[in-house]
Amino acid sequence: MKGSKMGNKGNGGLSPIRHHNFCAGPAALPTAVLERARDEMLDYRGHGLSVMEMSHRSPEYVAIAEKAEADLRELLAIPANYKVLFTQGGATQQFAAVPFNLLGQGGSANFVDTGIWSRKAIAEARHLFGDVHVAASSEAGGNTAVPRPEQLELSGDAGYLHYTANETIGGLAFDYTPRAMRPDGREVPLVCDMSSSILSGPLDVSRFGVIYAGAQKNIGPAGLVVVIVRDDLLDRARADMPSLFGYKALAEAGSMVNTPATYSWYLAGLVFEWLKDDIGGLSAMEAINARKAEKLYAAIDGSGLYSNPIATANRSRMNVPFVLADDRLDKPFLAEAEEAGLLNLKGHRSVGGMRASLYNAVPEAAVDALIDFMADFENRRG
Length: 382
Prior knowledge:
By secondary structure, the protein is of the alpha/beta class.
């Protein structure tokens, strides 16, 4: 790998078999990152123990944590007036943490409903606080296109607007950043679940009040959540909030109110380093991701067997769902794909069909192999 600091340092000349992994999460990790973690597993840089055995308050681990944050700030050009938190509980815990942290001064949670994950966030806020407002929804159109900006209608008491940038299950992605504007012209914080799209390209963090993302897609292994929160929002929490949810407390403690997910945080740091040093940053990563997705969508659109229902402008680069014209072919497609080393292509149980997740660590060669297999399968079975 050009310029890589993470190359294979020797495994007796043997290379493990690595299949192409299209899992939606936990997802593929860069091979270079896994090799680096392997080489540092038993003895981290001469300290005589593994990172996962270290005290999270030791100088060695604090250095790991601080470098990971610094690299993430550099990658995303995060402004100085934002805190970066490394916490736990998955993105699902943020469905509760966000309203607890932002509604302490009153107001209601507002949402854009575009699919299963945004609806889970809506359901949790409704369960906790009763009154929520859906500013726009794509449900009537079968979640095949996101609501347009002019369709967003916030409530008069909106405390914030939440949306899901990329619906992992449905493969529906926003092609714009919403404005969180109340009817009285007051702008409220914009909150975004970026679990399956963060780090896939450059991002203007300054347009958001809160960004959160589960790690297990583009950041690292499961067990970690990254939250990016603007400083002026740290004092808006409800008094009845569980203490471990508190953004301010996490920020003041350097994300170490309790023992963090230390090994996941370390691996995330290696991923950030890989993006910077091996890939060349997020603009380079975006170009690779665009090329991968364009290839696969072109293969689907040019086929008589495969189809994708999402409006072209809202097609996800990260999660590409597709169905076969004859669903009796689903099982043989999946079985033959697995035999060919193409793993985890089965669509989510709620929608069926197929889904290829093309996160950052999925190489272009994997997409090429999938396209070749799909063409061959269609020629033989279609």
